[in-house]
Amino acid sequence: MPTSRPLRADARRNREALLTTAREAFLAGEDIGVDEIARRAGVAVGTLYRHFDTREELIAEIYRQALDELCAEPDALLARHAPDRALREFLDLLVEHAATSRGMSFALESVLATDSAVFADSRRRMADCLDALLRAGAAAGTIRGDVDGWTVLRALGGVCGMRATEGWRDEAAQIVALLFDGLRYGATTAR
Amino acid sequence: MPTSRPLRADARRNREALLTTAREAFLAGEDIGVDEIARRAGVAVGTLYRHFDTREELIAEIYRQALDELCAEPDALLARHAPDRALREFLDLLVEHAATSRGMSFALESVLATDSAVFADSRRRMADCLDALLRAGAAAGTIRGDVDGWTVLRALGGVCGMRATEGWRDEAAQIVALLFDGLRYGATTAR
DNA sequence: ATATAACCGGAGTGGGACTCACTTTATTCG
DNA sequence: CGAATAAAGTGAGTCCCACTCCGGTTATAT
């Protein structure tokens, strides 16, 4: 008998159904409302709201799950590559991640708009990943040490929020390259 | 008797009142709806919609006006400074511009969200300004020539969209510095 | 002065997020 | 088993917006 009440069987099922349904729809680039999400998941809106305080929180939860994979990467990358190379790879992964989430970018917008606590947490985790890479690079002397992950993430904000325009991937790659050049040690000091 | 029908006197008055009212509210950081904008301007919603197809278009128009000043800068800067210096100054101005418009950033979000044609035009003009500076820098050999204004603007997207967080200005300055370091000639090629 | 084209008002529509009073059901325990 | 009961589910209804529509009003041309 767990202390924190282990969620009834049907409740768990419904919660899962809601998350899966919403994720699939968003990744497919569909913009559907709460009523439709609930309908497809085979429940009523009230049920959706029992599990998620708000539409945004549901979206944030989906996003958080996708983020889990991404946040596991830095360690793996640092094990296989030199720090600066690892950083570069991770930046590319971020773009890739944005590509996957691009379908739900419109959904994310509402989340970004109202700096919900849940999403703030996602940003924090992302920034932490970058911090680890930056610190490693700084220690190796190949990346400047006066920039933190939060700043880099901010700088990438434009990329992540990119709309599904033609050729956005090329643009994103250019921006990452630009950013990386700015980050490399030796590019600094002179002004 | 001008050919393109010069807008009736009362119509012009109302249009101006709407723009002024909305601008003031947004710059003050207020998020008000169309009904409230109309009420404060002393007209009815119908009048608002006679002048602007949509709420977003009204916002975009306000933004466009603010942009006019900014787009006059590059020429002045290039006249007074070396191209790379001019570019740097302009980037700082962009941040400043974001500061002024920060109050209406939430409003801008909806504009950025639905790539409205009117706002696309604003982005285009901004990119053109950057292009002029970049070309001048490339000609002088102090700025790399393989990046266009559009890309730089994208990279600055995160800055412009920044929320009113504590210390955002410092972060913005860091990002601009980072970006500029990436743009400077010589930082490139190596990969 | 009259015609008429443009303008204005504001109740009404539609759509989407969210609520709540009530019903159903999983779980627990005698 | 078979209540008892607390948790979960339901969905019609509310609220809040952006946006529309059309009858009444007003500026301008002749």
Q: Can you offer a commentary on this structure?
A:
The structure is a homodimer of 191-residue chains. The first copy, chain A, is an all-alpha fold and 191 residues long. Chain A has helices spanning 9-27, 34-41, 45-51, 55-80, 83-102, 105-113, 117-140, 149-160, 168-183. In chain A, helix 1 (9-27) crosses helix 2 (34-41), helix 5 (83-102) packs antiparallel against helix 9 and helix 8 (149-160) runs antiparallel to helix 9 (168-183). The longest helix of chain A is centred in the middle third of the chain and has 26 residues, at 55-80. The N and C termini of chain A lie far apart (63 Å). The first copy, chain A, binds a DNA duplex (30 and 30 nucleotides) through helix 1 and helix 3.
Structure at a glance:
With 191 residues, chain A is mainly alpha-helical. Chain A has helices at residues 9-27, 34-41, 45-51, 55-80, 83-102, 105-113, 117-140, 149-160, 168-183. In chain A, 74% of the residues lie in helices and 0% in strands.
Helical content band of chain A: over 70%
Poorly predicted regions of chain A are 187-191
Q: Pair with the most extensive interface?
A: A-B, 35 and 33 residues
Approximate strand percentage of chain A: under 5%
Structural class computed from helices and strand pairing of chain A: mainly alpha
